[in-house]
Amino acid sequence: MKALILAGGFATRLGPIGEQMPKAMIVVEGDTVLDHLLKKLEAEKIEPIILTNKKFENFFEKYKNVIVEGAMIEEEKLGAVPAINNAIKQLKIDEDLLVVCVDNYFSSDFKGFVSSYTGEPLVGVYYAGQKPDMKPEEMATMKFEGSESFPPPEQSFYLTDFKEKVKPPLSDYVSAGIYIYPKSIFPILDEFCRAQKQDAPGFFVQHLLGRGVKVKGYLFEGEWYDVSHKSYLQVFRDARLVKSDDRYIVCDKPLGKNLVLSITILHAGKHTTGHSHPVSEVYFFVEGQGEIELDGKRRSVKSKDVVPIMPDEFHRVYNTSRKDLVFICVFEKYGERG
């Protein structure tokens, strides 16, 4: 079995942040989403293939087995299902294929999911009923024996129905964006793509059930979410890009007339310019670790740390790690930032 990681999207739901970097490189729980997935696949001894686009190609230079689509904008991309089909043909894959969308963070490993595979198409499932911020009607939902309650009778089960984004949803069980395609269904996949049907992976699962193919589900335990749903990223969807270079990405969002909410994604080994100003502000460190300098004195900071900064106090942030350091600050507007 090989694994295909779908990282060819343009992160349009992340606003200005998504215009500057791919979702694969968003840091959550101390590592990039991509590296979390790679470590889980390595633990199962499954060789990964990464599929990305031309616009973000440089972010993937250090990785092996990368396929680059020619798309530079959203409208040019193939779509997930045709991209899977093209990769199978291009690489002449003749073995079962684990497909995972890079948007997703899993706290659990993939051992149970892979072990439950019995040669039939398999869908990773998550129970969204305990997550009031999740909206199943905006996701792929399903029915199976016991889907009316939680937990289900079994952790692995046959699906009886599956639909992409329907109101009302079929249940509170949603697709977690991870699948195993047995090589026996590759001809059906190719036929599906030649008919130019919908390109989301869930539509292909729907198609398989409609063809009478038995499809199983596996319930993931622990935490799972689409990284674009992280609240601190959602807040900045309509923010203004202030700076973007090899050091950092900075976006600002006004809060009423006097306050500004700002996010900085400080890249590995870099530091901010450093400055002082006549108003106080507060730094909230969201992901990563590093140091902050306050009037010449440096101290360590990490995820969940809060640092108040007094008026006219010089401050600078250093990223001392190999991953992005993400922090949010709130300050009173005192002039234009450039």
Describe the model.
The structure is a single chain. With 338 residues, the protein is an alpha+beta fold. The model has no long low-confidence stretch (mean pLDDT 93). It contains seven helices and 22 strands. It has helices at residues 15-20, 33-43, 80-91, 111-115, 186-194, 201-210, 231-234, and strands spanning 2-6, 27-28, 31-32, 47-53, 66-69, 97-101, 104-106, 122-127, 140-144, 156-164, 173-181, 216-219, 224-226, 240-244, 248-255, 259-266, 281-287, 289-294, 297-302, 306-309, 315-318, 325-332. Helices cover 17% and strands 36% of the residues. The protein is elongated, with a radius of gyration of 22 Å. Strands 5-4-1-6-11-8-12-10-9 form a nine-stranded mixed sheet, sandwiched between helices. The chain has a six-stranded antiparallel sheet with strand order 14-15-16-22-17-20. It has a three-stranded antiparallel sheet with strand order 19-18-21, with no helix packed on it. It folds into two domains: 2-231, Spore Coat Polysaccharide Biosynthesis Protein SpsA, Chain A; 239-332, Jelly Rolls.
Concise structural overview:
This protein is an alpha+beta fold.
